[in-house]
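Researcher: Quick one. three chains, 1122 residues in total.
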Amino acid sequence: MTDWTRLPASALVEALAAGEVTSVELTQAHLDRIAAVDGSIHAFLHVDADGALAQAAASDARRAAGTLASPLDGVPIAVKDVLATEGLPTTCGSRILEGWIPPYDATVVARLKLAGLPILGKTNMDEFAMGSSTEHSAYGPTHNPWDLDRIPGGSGGGSAAAVAAFEAPLAIGTDTGGSIRQPGAVTGTVGVKPTYGGVSRYGLVALANSLDQAGPVTRTVLDSALLHEVIGGHDPMDSTSVDQPLPALVEAARLGAAGDLSGVRVGVVTELGGGGYQPGVLARFEESLALLVKAGAEIVEVSCPNFVHALAAYYLILPAEASSNLAKFDAMRYGLRVLPEHIDNPSAEDVMRASRDAGFGDEVKRRIILGTYALSSGYYDAYYGQAQKVRTLISRDFEAAFAQADVLVSPTAPTTAFKLGEKLDDPMAMYLNDLATIPANLAGVPGISVPSGLADEDGLPAGFQILAPALADDRLYRVGAAHEAALAAEWGGPLLDKAPALEGAPS
Amino acid sequence: MPENPASSASPSDRVEITRAEVAHLANLARIDLDDAELDHLAPQLSVILESVASIGAVAADDIPPTSHALPLTNVFREDVIRPGLSAEQALSGAPAQEQQRFAVPRILGDEQ
Amino acid sequence: MSALDHRDTEIVAWDDVLAEYDPAMGLEVHVELNTHTKMFCGCPTEFGAEPNTQVCPTCLGLPGAMPVVNRKAVESAIRIGLALNCEIAEWCRFARKNYFYPDMPKNFQTSQYDEPIAFEGWMDVEVEGETFRVEIERAHMEEDTGKSLHVGGVTGRIHGADYSLVDYNRAGIPLIEIVTKPIMGTREKAPAIAKAYVAQLRELIVALGVSDARMDQGSIRADVNLSLAAKDSGALGTRTETKNVNSLRSVERAVRYEMQRHAAVLRSGAQILQETRHWHEDTGVTTSGREKSDADDYRYFPEPDLVPVAPSREWVEELRATLPEPPREKLARLQAAWGFSDLEMRDTVGAGALGLVEETIACGAAPQAARKWWLSEMARRANDSGVDIAALGVTPVQVARVQALVEEGSINDKLARQVFDGLLAGEGTPDEIVAARGLAIVSDDGALGAAVDNAIAANPDVADKIRDGKVAAAGALIGAVMKEMRGQADAARVRELILEKLA
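Model:
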């Protein structure tokens, strides 16, 4: 009997079309898998079995009537808990939003529903997407399916782990500094951060508005392209949304999978390699380059000298914007309200202070204070103002690099998954995880992480990052799919086949 | 953006952030931090600020700031009513409500 | 009242203030636009809806929701800027003003900071025949806050309340804030200039059609900044900001009061606290609000959820072409058309009645009649009830109808005043009030003849004089008839009847 949870979405689409399986069966298979393994993974904060099955039944009815809503109609999906879902709890991994049920859908969620994808549930994340390990979730960490003692990356560790553990064929993540790509790298999955403005942010609870972008989390490049075409495109509810049609992403993925990269110039960014990168990660990166050359690509070395300042700019812009975004969590209109213990008849202000103290975790408080500092009168020019100028320099570096190369590549993250707890109280060490992913967010360009193999030291997955110019997301899919096809040929199957079986799951 | 005389302070002059400053910032941000949290946060913030301080010297004055990755302008909507939320939906998450309004503890100070 | 409060309300005699100090003023006027929808979302803006029924995720500040700018609001802002002779920015942004307050859903206000849509303008203000140029620093776009009801304590007051109830219907309604540069050299005319500025600005807003311009409903709100410096020193003293002065009359009174209060503080050797103050319409004083402090570190930064507004010069010129006639030219044209004297025109403008008079004339009333009703009758009633003439509740259409009834001979001026009483009491249209109160003049010879006979019988000596040819004595008999008819007799017909009967 076919285990439907092991197949990529593209294969499920075919099985649904051939009548080999129904959406209800598919959805039930994934709900069963969640029930079996999520006790050890903890990818989900909320599972909506009834809702997903009802949506699946509606999909099957559409199929019977010949009125499919989209190519992915009937394929279930998991959604990061940072996107508003009408009628489903949305916590952003924070205590302060415990029990909040939005009265509206994020545009991405509305598009998923419109396209007929049953929503399995909401996935775990670092609180308000602040983190690279999912350990900053108020509801406990998510575990990496490759090694349950290790982090699944962050902030979207829940979405990546859900896909890696076969709990969902597809998931939605959000990426502010690498939160889709870095979890993809450390779980051996595919994650795409689209061009800024390429996917609507309406209903995405903002971390840093000028950096945030929602995107696909999947096991294959083609699946990401299929999902990207469902959620992408202009949204009048998001003023920063790009009012242009998406490039042909699925077509680009199919083209790439054919394996020919002749004439494609691949730029290796000098500043995104070398010192600080784990040897096994670098070894897989070099092999990836060799595979691209074999497929006909030309490798060029490019320098982006201002990338060394990206982390600093990021850790000023992000806390500044976040400190303002998170001000709305004040216990007045929704969310947690805590009355201070030692005050009789407390004022609104007292209640705000007490609720925000009780409702926010350490990392969130750290960044709010940092952002408040960076925006304070007297420091604005020196910090936020300078950081915005550094963005300009980084964009110029990208521009110069893309004059020499069609895509840029680097390892996605400097290391494989580290142990839970290892960097929890060393914020700077944690922040260094995003070194290679942050420049794309600052410049708004798209990026993808695809698995590059297992590091020799620890046998854990490493990721290969591909970046393209703004609005040229199709290049990610072409090069990513070619890379994926070449590696699958070497391995004799997907990398995830090498992941250990999980306890509780039928072998 | 703000033209403030105090902005001549360059980050490289001061990467130290004191416990008192953290308490002041926590007050601005409306978070009740207890003593232990203040003790813990101040040195951590100093470390972070130290590592981002390099930024002050990077960009020359003639470099324009980028606030949006893609340079869009003039994104407007027409002045047409869209259906919103019912009062029930609006109040669905309210910690307390009365008379179809959000009930909030007594407000200190003045309306701005 | 505490000792501090008492000292707070000491004031110096007006003449003494002027002898020792020069005032400097700054006026910040918030104009609520009359767009159909809010500044950043598609919620309706109608006044008086049930609480929390005109809200959506955006104006309620729900997590994830995003703003989109209302094109009409930008157009209104540009038109206001142009009408105030401002430059229109080629490129400007919205910024977040961060502070915590329960009536502000996001705990930041989306406003404009150092890049306003309009800047560097002016408006000429006429006061007692003289023209003062008030320089405009900027006009910028922002959003309104929600409204709180305070429960417990003194009814409706924020201080001492047990808790508050918030309605966010008003949150997100577009506001244009118009800020003057410091207005100097106004001396004893400061209160009148402040009032005239707000009055003329209001007229301009009405002419532009961009706001309901109802000060009583808060659609125009003024903040008055005031400072005093030693006379002829040319210096600028510490200022106070008196918030939400919500009638033209109060603007004048608040300036005057603050000048007198500042003088008392300065004279005592104390310093003026830089603070916000509250104007109390009922008692005519201001009280201390909030001292400027660290809490005013608003941490402005460009709103990252919105993109810059860059009005093309073509768009600006298109909008310029829609501007109403400039006020000064309009005044000259109206004065010529109406045949008003300079003084009459000035009084009309000064009373804030120009638009009302204009509309009344447009409804068919003679110019002098329209002026007479508004400047005598309506101005007096507005003054008696302490409201602005526009907020009185009598409309130009009604005044024009009353005047038409006078001209038809259905009522006279004295009866017209009773019609206005009826209008203010909400008794219906002028015609309904005339009918219901039985105010129509009697010109029927039967009823009048009986009254004339009575008057002649009661005043035989007067009747004899008239018979002797002293026609002027008829006035006494007419008076007696009018008294009997309770003023509702047609005086001309009464005179004719008397002369016929005594011929």
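Residues 1-7 of chain C have pLDDT under 50 and may be disordered.
Researcher: Thanks, that's what I needed.
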